[in-house]
Structures
1.
Amino acid sequence: MNAAVKRLDVICIGRVAVDLYAQQIGSRLEDVASFAKYLGGSSGNVAFGTAIQGLKSAMLARVGDEHNGRFLRETLNRAGVDTEYLITDKSRLTALVMLGIKDQETFPLIFYRDNCADMALTPDDISEEYIASSRALAVTGTHLSHANTRAAVLKALEYARRHGLRTALDIDYRPVLWGLTSLGDGETRFIESGPVTSQLQEVLHLFNLVVGTEEEFHIAGGSTDTLTALKNVRNATKATLVCKRGPMGCVVLEGDIPDSWDQVPLQQGVRVEVLNVLGAGDAFMSGLLRGWLNDEGWEQACRYANACGALVVSRHGCAPAMPTKVELDDYLQRAESVPRPDVDERLNHLHRVTSRRQQWPELCIFAFDHRKQLADLARETGRDEACIPQLKLLLLAAAEAAAQEAGLDQRSGILADGTYGQRALNAITGKGWWIGRPIELPSSRPLRLEHGNIGSQLIDWPLEHVVKCLVFYHPDDPAALRAEQDALLLEVWQACNKSGHELLLEVILPENGPDKDERHYHTMLEHFYQLGIKPDWWKLPPLSSASWQQITALIEREDPWSRGILILGLDAPSDKLRAGFAEAAAHPMIKGFAVGRTIFGQPSRRWMQGELSDEALIEEVKRNYLTLIGYWREARR
């Protein structure tokens, strides 16, 4: 296949697994109580890392026909990785790794890889046409350790050389995966082994690029003296050798190996506070491949690689810690002014906003997160509050019916609470809807959280749930009131940054306030940005087009990565919302609406009074929701 029409930049072949990272930093693995689940495996990480660096990458491996296999496939797909040849193995389970972070030098890990899916790769899984569709093939050393996977790798390399692909090897030496340690000793990084050295040296000539740490070159070169090992590797291959030298950086060796390190230019590393070295090599490889495959020269490729590795060691996990292209480029453009990238506020914000799981170009959200209003309605109609959870399930059914009828693919959402709406939340989670949940105590001013500390709440929330926080605010509030509300909003914002949940900040002028000039909304948003709060979403009442112009300009200046604005309803009549939608239509930053009582208010009252059956309630609410969807689409035409 001609290089000009190749659709892939790099195919990664090797380990892909689920990583379970201990959340209690400093604990022995025996004492860890909870774990975070991430994409893992060296090749899986590199496929992910190169994709978010802008390359068209692919994963060639096997995963199990179960939840973990689907998790890996979905995670890779979201990053843009081609998974056409990520084969589902119906006879084996997906590989698993448990990892701990004891201190800066101790990282216990256990590989669960007995008869796992990715080690069942065979030559029959390798398609010549697929290999030929790429510019490069990247292999990790573990797949050279077993006969079947070794044969598969050699077949892929044969096709790669036949079709002119660049070939790269990350030595990726794990003694336990070569059978050199006890099964539970995944932490040991180096054990001398003549057979392993021989098996590696047999294939080194098949690669254009070989990458490893000093210890990994020790095993490839059969010597614990690094320069001697590199000379032995050079005798086996003409490949460019990139040797990682820890925090110092790396060296690139294209010809003869010198007798002294003084004769080798060092590509300087990036200084950071180390949290976790696991996965740093995969991030390094991702950055290096970006520069190498884009022909940017070794100096630039190593800048990418060193920075990627440094950023990952300062964060929890590997794949989710890897920088995106936007994030990495921003850092490298101002590297001299960022002595500690791991604590740089701008860089960490870029990581958060450019790593989002799903894009939402437009949203028509049905909000039924109301608690106090429905409890009051139940009392007014003589019903027990126990009926409210059932009502919310019926409202969800109406939302789903309307979304299907309106064709709201990837544009539908709900706001629902955990107090009365937990069953509805459970039912819709995982279906691809936008889902928001309130945390504020209804009607509280100053702001209070309904269920106490925000950090402890978010531990139990699915990551796809958006934190919605409503604050009644006025720029002329007493200083003490503003300070109290500001402090809690900052706490909420910081908790969302820590947990990875998105934040929707809903701002409403107090209902009983004497001054409701809509120009205050610009002032309030500007104030929140000055505090350092950058919510993913804003939720605001309908405003004039002139006010929207000012507010959207403010958001674009302060946080161009903002998800945007959603228009709230405040129980307004549908014709008033229609006019509000028309005022908003010309402003792309406004992504849609999140409206509730206008849709469900009267039908819910009649249902509680016994005037509507469940089916009639669903039908009436569906019609009201469809009406607003129609008004929004009408405005946006």
2.
Amino acid sequence: MSEFSESEKEILLKHFSNVNGSVFAIITPRQVDRGALMSRYSRTDKSMRKIFLDEFLQNETRGEEFYNKVLLEYGDDSVAELGEAQIAIEGVSNIAVKTIEDRRLGLSYLEKSSRYVSWEKKINGEYKFYREPDIMESKYADIYLESCNLDFDVYSRNIEPMISYIQERESIHSQRFKNSHGEEVLFSYLKDENDIKSATRIYNATIKAKALDILRGILPAGTMTNVGITGNGRAFEYLLTILYSSNLHEERDLAQKMQKELDYTIS
């Protein structure tokens, strides 16, 4: 069953090269929205097309708002690199992502971050790791599945305990936060309700990010993620050459899908 209704698909086709494929070009007219979508991509578990429907469709200034928030408030200047032809790839293994991201000349990347997004969710009862066809047809299939599932089980079971452990070592009451007057004070000195809520939200997000950062090393190399790529035609051509010549089925398949979407975008 498709993630989108027929009316949503009709809308999405005006902004993306396809509505069902795992590889697609971002063709929404406004460059600021394309860049913001790419950056937003790295901080959520949603698919890019779902982000667009939920956050951008009814808000014409969402792109500007997001840039202002990320650049001015968070100081994350990685989004400033985004400005050319853009391709999104979803459900790709970390192995393939590393092959892609090793090609830095002319290309910029934003990947779904394992620091901000947890990987414990299952899709149709299965953890999100790549089932390589050659492995799955070999005598090692069962061992591979057992090993990857064990990695994910250990990772998932330890998220909350790790958060609790870090909270014990780094209590919110020992942390300093800026109040509404711009002063940096200990949490217990915050009096304004909005300051307290903001500090609590920042603290919880920081602690979770630290926990996920520690645990992500447990995840297998086949863990599936999303990545957005920005680049010029020459850089994409070189990347496709590398992927087409790969010994891995996944990377050759990605090359074919990427070329199709790039041909669509360029034409």
